[in-house]
Amino acid sequence: MSAASVQISGVFPAYAIQAGSGKPRNELGIGALMPWAGKLWAVSYVAHRGHGAGLYCIDKDLHIARHPESVTGTFCNRFMHGPSDSIIIGPHIIDGQGQVRTSKKLAEYRLAGTCRHLTDPENKVYVLSMEGPFFELDLHTLEVKELCNLTYELKLWTERIPDITGKAADRVPQHLPQPHFKACHTGQGRVLVANNSYFDQDHAGEWASGRLAEWDGKQWTIIRTTPFNEVTGRENFGQNIFALGWDRASVIMMVLVNGKWTEFRLPKASQTFEHCWQTEWPRLREVEHERYLLDASGMFYELSGWLLEGKLWGVRPVCSHLRVVPDFCSFAGLLVMGDNQVSPVGNDWSVGEPQSNFWFGHIEDLWSWGKPKGWGGPWWKTPVKAGEASAPYLMTGFDKKVLHIRCESDAATRVCVEIDFIGNQSWCAYANLAVDANGYAHHVFPDGFSAHWVRLVSASNATLTALLHYT
After folding, report:
1. Could you tell me if 238 and 257 are in contact, meaning their C-beta atoms sit under 8 angstroms apart?
2. What is the reported pLDDT for 4?
3. Average pLDDT, the chain
4. What's the pLDDT score for residue 455?
5. CA–CA separation, 72 and 317 (whole Å)
6. d(Cα 314, Cα 212) in Å, to the nearest integer?
7. Cα–Cα distance between 349 and 282 in angstroms, integer?
8. Starting from the edge strand earliest in sequence, which strands make up the sheet with 220-224, in order?
9. What are the boundaries of each domain within the chain?
10. 265-285: b or e for each residue (b if 16 or more CB lie within 10 Å)?
11. What fold characterizes domain 380-470?
12. Architecture of domain 72-328
């Protein structure tokens, strides 16, 4: 048996991508995966600088090779462009025969996403960089045109918007933190982008640097000012769009149907993904025929791209985990993940040589990784209006369930717990909990009790925290 054929729990040690131990020593992850032209293509990334890594291809015999067109950079974008029968992965354009061209201009940027062009989809695409420059790429000439800088368009530099936090201008930080754009998508006549900047000041409510935003080809509009990692969807199935983010309370899933956004919330399985640099690249990908796999805050979920009745159905947790998974896809009947594992960014003394690897397995293997468990909820020190329901929070697929509620107002209130056991956001009153002024209440759900979604309604205006713990 050759060393290259040795695999342990889906990992081939010989496939590890290494950047070497020379300086500068840096992060190294596998940023994007895409099956194309009979091979699995992978592009890796360093954080800001570094050496090694690049573009790799794996054939169906699972032989891996670094492509001659490889360039070192920070690349996590992938897109299939039907009209030209090609894919864009990193700064590379790969045709249906596997021939590779590279945009030298785009290779200079940290690339976060690629998406369909609004007015010339036959010939061009949009490319988003992590720092905010937003480009138009001609797939025939490889001409690159910068259309705007989203750092300014989306008000991430406070010199141009001294009232971004709603406080007096002299109390506003000189800059909001470094932009950290992660994804883009075109659908329903608009381009959507996600920025996941999130630091201590975001958690404390001192500023809001995350962004979910859209562009109609003329004007940019900010939808949410919380961190978002992913935005994606299909061009059929009603062009439903899913956006994935989080705040201190829970994971946020925004769904756009027929031009209308609806918010849903999911548990966090771990808070080790909390910082914008730790969340890396949570993804929502189609991995089986018209079936999605979602990775968020240490939990994999399954769901459908179909939204029957225009509503989100069938979200179910699969497993908890601690892997940093920048991308995953199906290839040759396998589920393949690219990881970010040993990265000595400011940690030279403990992690050694920067390297990452792939995982090969079956989607069913995920059910053995770790039983779903997590916590979160719809409110965290949230000013709640009387009679206004919270966003639906996922309830199905977990065992033990406890609801904790804290009132941080000087008047008592009652909170109605409503459940949706069908899955289509049809609600039934389940219980009413009295919460004293500046007090606490909890409810332990019976063993075996479950519903698809749960939401809360306060009887009076109050500042409330409501979190559910699933074990």
Report:
1. yes
2. 63
3. 90
4. 98
5. 36
6. 24
7. 28
8. 181-187, 190-195, 211-215, 220-224
9. 1-71+329-372, 72-328, 380-470
10. bbbbbbeebebbeebbbbbbb
11. Hypothetical Protein Tm1070; Chain: A (2.60.290)
12. 7 Propeller (2.130)
